[in-house]
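Need residues for this backbone.
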C-alpha cells in the first residue's frame, strides 16, 4: 500500500556499543535543548535484520537515537542537525518520512510471538551515575531480542498541573524501560527476566520511585500506587468505590475499592 499521511522529520541513528557512555552524555545535552515538537529515544539493542541495516551490522549490539519532529520540516532539519553530526553514526536514516512509516521502522526488532517482560521507571535527571549504570548493564542482555529504552519527558507534559489528570509524575525528566524479549522456544525465560530485574535494581539509586502505569506488569499493589501521586490515587479509589465497588473491572493495573457493594 502507498504510504499516506503527513511527513515528519524522523528516523534512527545507530552508533557502536562502545560509544554508549558518550552517546548518552550527548543525548542528555541534546534533549536539554529540544523544542516541544521533537521527541527522542535512546535505545540499546541488537541491530535487527531490517532493510535499512547493512548486512555486517545485523546482529551487532548498537546504541540508537530515534527522533520524530512533528512540525515544519525545515525547523525539524535544524533541530536534528547536531545529532546527525555527532559520531558520526554507523547508520543514519533521519529525514522526511511519513509518520506511519516512522512508527513501523523498528518493527523487525520486536517480532510477533515473543515472550516479553519489562521493568520501568522515571528519572529526575540523567546524571553521570545513571548513564554509567545503563552503559554497564544494558549490553549484558541475555537475549538479542531484549532492549533498553530511555526517553525524554518534559515539554508540554510538565506544564500541566500535577492534579489536572490521573497521569502524574509530570516533573520527571526521563523515563526508561528494561525490556526482556525471547522466543517461545527458549526454555530459559527466567534468566532473561532476571536481566531486566537486575538492571532495574541497579537504576534505583537514580530513579524517582515512580512509573508509568502502562509499563507495569504483575508487580503488586504498591507498584500500582507508584504510578500516581497519593492524592490522585485516593481520588481514583473514591471513583472506584462509587462506580465499581465489587471490583468487576480488575483485569488491569487494578485500583482496588475500599468498600464492597
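Answer:
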Amino acid at each position: 500500500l502507498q504510504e499516506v499521511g503527513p511527513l515528519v522529520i524522523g528516523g534512527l541513528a545507530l552508533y557502536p556499543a562502545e560509544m554508549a557512555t558518550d552517546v548518552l552524555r550527548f543525548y542528555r545535552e541534546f534533549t536539554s535543548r529540544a523544542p516541544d515538537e521533537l521527541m527522542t529515544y535512546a535505545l540499546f539493542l541488537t541491530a535487527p535484520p531490517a532493510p535499512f541495516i547493512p548486512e555486517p551490522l545485523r546482529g551487532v549490539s548498537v546504541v540508537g537515537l530515534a527522533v520524530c519532529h512533528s512540525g515544519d520540516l525545515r525547523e525539524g532539519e535544524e533541530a536534528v542537525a547536531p545529532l546527525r553530526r555527532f559520531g558520526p553514526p554507523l547508520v543514519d536514516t533521519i529525514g522526511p518520512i511519513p509518520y506511519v512509516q516512522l512508527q513501523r521502522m523498528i518493527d523487525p526488532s520486536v517480532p510477533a510471538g515473543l515472550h516479553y517482560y519489562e521493568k520501568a521507571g522515571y528519572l529526575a535527571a540523567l546524571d553521570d551515575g545513571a548513564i554509567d549504570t545503563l552503559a554497564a548493564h544494558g549490553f549484558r542482555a541475555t537475549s538479542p531480542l531484549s532492549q533498553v529504552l530511555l526517553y525524554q519527558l518534559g515539554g508540554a507534559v510538565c506544564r500541566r498541573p500535577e492534579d489536572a489528570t490521573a497521569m502524574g509524575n509530570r516533573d520527571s525528566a526521563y523515563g526508561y524501560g528494561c525490556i526482556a524479549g525471547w522466543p517461545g522456544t527458549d526454555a530459559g525465560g527466567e534468566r532473561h527476566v532476571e536481566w531486566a530485574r537486575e538492571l532495574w535494581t541497579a537504576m534505583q539509586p537514580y530513579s524517582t520511585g515512580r512509573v508509568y502505569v502502562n509499563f507495569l506488569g504483575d508487580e503488586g499493589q504498591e507498584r500500582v500506587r507508584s504510578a500516581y501521586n497519593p492524592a490522585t490515587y485516593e481520588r481514583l479509589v473514591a471513583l472506584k468505590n462509587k462506580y465499581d465497588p465489587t471490583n468487576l473491572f480488575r483485569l488491569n493495573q487494578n485500583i482496588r475499592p475500599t468498600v464492597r457493594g
